Amino acid sequence: MSGIYEGRMGQAPESASWPDARIPDLLGIELPILLAPMAGVVGAPMAAAVAAAGGLGALPCALLSEEQMRQELAAVRRSTSRPINMNFFCHRPASFDSGRESAWRRQLMPYYTELGLDPGMAIPASNIAPFDGAACDLLAELKPGVVSFHFGLPTRDLLDRVKASGAKILSSATTVDEARWLEDNGCDAIIAQGLEAGGHRGMFLSRDVATQAGTMALVPQMVDAVKLPVIAAGGIADSRGIAASFALGASAVQIGTAFLLCPEARTASLHRRAIKTVRDNQTVVTTVFSGRPARAIVNRATRELRPLPDEAPAFPLAGNALAPLRAKMESLQSDDFTPLWAGQGAPLARELPAGELIRLLATETLARIGR
Description:
By secondary structure, the protein is of the alpha/beta class. It has helices at residues 22-27, 44-52, 66-77, 98-114, 133-142, 156-164, 176-184, 215-225, 239-247, 269-277, 300-304, 318-331, 354-368, and strands at residues 33-35, 57-60, 84-89, 145-150, 168-173, 189-193, 199-200, 230-233, 252-255, 283-286, 294-297. It folds into two domains: 3-91 and 129-265 and 345-368, Alpha-Beta Barrel (TIM Barrel), CATH 3.20.20.70; 96-127 and 279-341, no CATH class. The chain contains 13 helices and eleven strands. It has an eight-stranded parallel β-sheet. Strands 7-11-10 form a three-stranded antiparallel β-sheet, with no helix packed on it. Helix 2 runs parallel beside helix 3 (66-77), helix 4 runs parallel beside helix 12 (318-331) and helix 5 packs parallel to helix 6 (156-164). The radius of gyration is 20 Å and the shape is globular.
């Protein structure tokens, strides 16, 4: 690589240069910048690139089999030995509700008919298993260095086993109450997920999306409420957002949407197209695609089915009946029924290699805050 990264800028700025070094010191990384573990988009190439550049790379594991987790981490380890965050969901398994499922299928029936699909067709049932003992066994073997959770924490016995493997524990909080709960139940640092964030809300003590706070309001209140270091997340896509997060008291930032256009990202072509054209008012928190609140780019599904339909089955079952519609429209190069996960900072995303983007964010931020 040539140009601005030669010489001094060829190295990631050291943690001592930052206003708060607690997260780099805790996690064994150089930069207080974490890659968000975006399931389906982030894999070994991006995780390795971010880690090699000094940030914390991430592997989203909620949708992976045990063998896939092994393969992904092995691929990372061929590039770097630095700590990697393996991320898991710890939701309660969904209970099938035949009444709700029938109501949801009735809601979707006109679309099946429009697209020439049989409304009564058999749909393969898929589910997402929460973190369990088998995952604990795998972590004891793989020792990634950092393990993070979404939707709270696993049971205490499972969490103790993860800690025994030597991993530092992170989890997302969307309210001050959730942050206090995470501090009381074994976290080492807390991710403050503002309402601007893309993908699934990490909320676990509340179901009311209307009460969720944005990053600007959430971070300082969370910093005041807990002793653990707080990692700001949501709407942060450039040096202005990172500098603002430190001014609010955060010890680090977690960034996701800004990486969706990186060449290492497994972002589908339809998703990339949407990111490149999205505007500030074109994302919405919706339960349409999974049954759980998540921020995505507005499309036909969210407009016509309403962002938060009462009929949507519980997480993650809502996506089952949508799958045939999604497949049909994607074959026609349409994203009408595709979950286009993205945060409100999506228009700030840049098409740069992930490692280059991490270093650029760090250098620009340090220049902005006068370090």
